Amino acid sequence: MKCEDIRNRLPDALTGEMESAERSSFDAHIADCGACGHELRRLSETWMRLGVLPTAQPSAALSNRFYAMLEAEKARAADAPALPGHTQRWKSLFQGAHPPRLAFQFGLGFVLLVAGIGGGFFLGTHGLSGGRIADLSREVQDMRQSMALTLLGQSSSSERLRGVGYSERVGDPAPQTIEALLRTLDTDPSVNVRLAAADALYLFAKNPAVKDGIVRSLSGQESPIVQVALIDLLVDLREKRAVDSLRALIDKSTLDPAVRKQAENGIRQLTL
Amino acid sequence: MTDDALMRAVRDGQVEKLAVLFERHQVPLFNFFLRLTGNGAAGEDLVQDVFTRILKYRATYQGEDRFQVWMYKIARNAHIDHLRKRKNALPLDELPLEPTGREAGPEERNERREEAELVTKALAELSPKKKEILMLSRFQNLKYREIADLLGCPVGTVKGLVHRTVAELGEIIARLTKETCRHEM
Description:
The complex is a heterodimer of chains A (272) and B (185). Chain A is an all-alpha fold and 272 residues long. Chain A is 79% helix and 0% strand. Chain A has 14 helices and no strands. Chain B starts with a helix and ends with a helix.
């Protein structure tokens, strides 16, 4: 390699983006050439000094704003699928209007108008109070939880995936929903369902039972994909109690090398 | 589950999965913006803006790029829009620079903190483009090829710019160190 080639590769040396074959000829040149060696040391020193910048943590307000936005979007998404059905029904009612049906349609319009005025008067006098709205919201949550529990018990993996999906839409899941998700994570025969359960549990990580369950589950998992997903999850959650489980995992002689690397990396991040 | 798989799930209707991506990326993204703008509140607004845009444009996610590259494309656009809005208010170079650590207080300052302040001050002297490319290559875990894709330029240009920027930053740090020493004498 000539000096010019080496200068072009200096940025790669900073980030470590270099093949091992290239690396050896690069290192050999740096060892022999004073000017290139000096330039590499000069750049490396500044590059390393950037590491002194602390990693700042955003305030809790950012999380609050994000989750408020997500909730609003979830509510919109939950409402959206119903629209085509309704629209279709109204469309089919009015589609192909021709004279013989018009009288019926005007009649129906009049009935709806009266019903609307009556309904408005009823709501005006009785009103849907905040309490009633809260009750309705609770009912929806309860319905989602029972759907989740029912579907998680099905023999079809696609049904169980749907069950996980329902559980994710529960704002504040009951202990039995959390237990069902943890059981799915531990014992479900399908890797995809176990991964989906892990993602769902991540959403409820504020619940102490969830973190405990995930740490426990890691030692029992055999699938490398699930193991890596759980390691990532525990690192994301900054769950320091996972360090012992990760060490125990590394000690397993049959452990997949990629999982071992991820576990070692996880320990480093959790013990920083 | 990988970022890419999560984003595909978000695109296909499981918007709640965005929470996982938010938890994974909010801190690096916040630090990216904090170092670019030197302002914590603006950094948080920009992170929120990025995730709002991800939701808004989720249908356009094709998974051709690594999720992180796609996200930083959105982040760059959010930052450019932020600069446009701020342009009439205050030039970028004159923006007040917040300390990057939250626990300010002269008595708590140690050598490492002084060093961090020096580097932060030096970074503020770089042009926005150089600062951005340095942040992307040094802190955001993006490869030069991916940065080239992000910026829409050849990979050689990115490497050349990184080389020149690191060299320039080293010179600024050396100058600021000398100035500080003269000040203290």
